[in-house]
Amino acid sequence: MTPYYILAAAAANTDEGKVEAIARQFGWHPQLFFSQLVVFGIVIFALNKFAYKPILEVLDDRRKRIEESLASAEKIKTELAETEAARKKILENANTHANQLIEEARSAANKVKEQETQKAISQAEQIISKAREATQADHERMLAELKSEVGKLVVQTTAQVTGKVLTNEDQKRLVDEANKQIAA
Question: Read out DSSP for 146-176?
Answer without folding.
Answer: HHHHHHHHHHHHHHHHH-SPPPHHHHHHHHH
